[in-house]
Write a structure and sequence with these properties.
The complex is a heterodimer of chains A (204) and B (277). By secondary structure, chain A is mainly alpha-helical. Chain A is built from seven helices and no strands. The radius of gyration of chain B is 22 Å and the shape is globular. Chain B has one domain. The two termini of chain B are 30 Å apart. Chain B has twelve helices and no strands. The chains are: A mainly alpha (204), B mainly alpha (277). At the A-B interface, helix 2 and helix 6 of A face helix 9, helix 10, helix 11 and helix 12 of B.
């Protein structure tokens, strides 16, 4: 039987002393990085399947891909990159103790997130109106699948940003570690989108 | 939870495994939890054996089979289906013990009891699409090989859609566990397990296209809808069984934070990663 130690409460929050000493540390909860790595693995497997299927029917994929508007994809990417920049500023402001700025940047991140969602829904609507739906062909199945599963991650991202805002708003519960954990999640969404954009819109 | 002991408890006997088991049965105050954990381990192994080897319904066959091919599919594994699902129907009740053990982890957390109750209800429902409907449909299909092929095709679709396509209950179950782990202050499970629950829940969503496609990667036997999901599910199951075992070892039957294992404390880095939890 494995022995157990006595229950000692562990400090909830980042080790500020380590940070000020300049020791290397992982932003936010290290636990969130497990999610990042696991999701990266799962998405890598989706991408692998996509690339294999694309290799098997290159003409079909190229032909269908031509119906996507690259400008929309670029716009989506820029919007999410700016949202990532805003959440990074939120973290930085929190570390400097400028909580008002941190809060504004969290709201700015949400705003760009909403812009992304609206533009994605508009893009889907346009594609469907042109007759390209989930079952049109294999390329469009992948297109709707990858963008929809990413969309779902983004929706969860709003809950995550809500947690960050909730933390920042009150000095009593303010946890920089949790804010950084939320920012890590948001960056992951951005990172995954860049890969989806490259595969669906750019790869020839 | 109480030990069946009065007076001094003797040391765990060395040597014979049978004597050790007898000691645990008589004196171990965590006896019921260990029974629950072993039920989970045995059940999942048996589940794999019954579905993959005896009934041979997993990995799933293609949804695009013609009625004549479906009849042949049933004929090829007739006795496997009949015997396999007869055993499934016998051991299916073990899910009550399993679900109770998993719900116990939420009762040990600092969160509302509503989490444990929700989990129990949702996983009691999950037994139907996750096991019983498919078992009954496959048994009915295998029972009378002379039945009209169209009817057999109906049973085939019913069996596999109910099994592969109904992931909503598992999705909600994973989310309930996730929120409980993330809110918990008793450190029953590490926070990363909460996030892993989210990963598992998201893969349950990915199965949804199986209702639409009869072939390809999104069909119920497809690379995305089945193979990747199965890899995630197996990883998730192995992880929660390991963490559950560790939780039982750490259990002190108190109400505050669970004590850490000595081995984990030794592994904890002096600063950096461990401190930022």
């Amino acid at each position: 039987m494995t022995t157990v130690a006595g229950a000692e409460p562990r400090a909830d929050g980042p080790d500020e002393e380590e940070r000020t000493r300049g020791a290397p540390f992982v932003p936010g909860q290290p636990d969130m990085w497990v999610f990042v790595l696991f999701e990266a693995l799962v998405f890598t497997s989706y991408f692998t399947v996509y690339v294999i299927r694309r290799t098997q029917s290159p003409a079909l994929f190229l032909q269908s891909q031509a119906h996507l508007d690259l400008r929309v994809g670029v716009f989506n990417t820029l919007v999410l990159l700016v949202s990532s920049w805003a959440v990074a500023r939120c973290v930085q402001a929190g570390r400097e103790g400028s909580h008002r700025t941190a809060l504004n940047n969290a709201y700015l991140t949400m705003l760009f997130g909403v812009v992304f969602l609206v533009s994605k829904v508009l893009e889907w609507t346009t594609e469907i109106e042109q007759g390209f739906s989930f079952t049109t062909d294999e390329f469009f199945s992948f297109y709707y699948f990858l963008t929809a599963i990413h969309f779902l991650h983004l929706l969860i991202g709003f809950v995550v940003l809500g947690v960050a805002v909730y933390q920042i708003r009150s000095p009593a519960r303010r946890s920089q570690e949790l804010v950084e954990t939320c920012a890590t999640y948001w960056h992951t969404i951005d990172f995954l989108w860049v890969l989806i954009f490259a595969l669906l819109y750019v790869m020839r | 939870m109480s030990a069946a002991t009065t007076g001094a408890v003797p040391e765990v006997p060395a040597g014979s495994l049978v004597r050790k088991i007898a000691w645990h049965w008589r004196y171990d105050e965590k006896r019921e939890l260990w029974i629950g954990w072993w039920t989970l381990v045995v059940f999942y192994n048996l589940y794999g054996l019954l579905f993959f080897v005896i009934a041979r319904t997993q990995p799933p066959p293609p949804p695009s089979l013609a009625p004549a091919e479906i009849v042949r599919w049933f004929d090829d594994r007739r006795y496997g289906l009949l015997c396999g699902y007869a055993i499934v129907s016998i051991v299916g009740g073990a899910t009550a013990i399993m679900n109770a053990t998993l719900a116990y982890t939420m009762r040990r957390m600092s969160v509302s009891r509503a989490f444990a109750y929700s989990y129990l209800v949702i996983y009691a429902l999950a037994t139907l699409p996750g096991m019983l409907i498919m078992g009954v449909a496959c048994t009915v299909g295998a029972m009378r090989p002379e039945r009209d092929p169209e009817l057999v095709s109906w049973l085939y679709d019913f069996a596999f859609l109910s099994f592969e396509g109904t992931m909503g209950v598992f999705l909600v179950g994973s989310l309930v566990w996730m929120v409980a782990v993330l809110l918990d202050k008793n450190r029953v499970f590490p926070k990363w397990f909460g996030y892993l629950n989210l990963c598992n829940a998201l893969t349950e969503v990915v199965v949804a296209p199986a209702w639409i496609f009869k072939r390809g990667v999104f069909a119920w036997d497809g690379a995305i809808a089945w193979w990747i999901n199965m890899a995630v599910f197996v990883t998730y199951t192995a992880v929660f069984l390991t963490l559950l075992r560790k939780m039982i070892v750490r259990e002190d039957f108190g109400t505050g934070p669970l004590p850490e294992l000595e081995s984990d404390r030794a592994l904890e880095p002096a600063g950096t990663l461990g401190a930022a939890r």
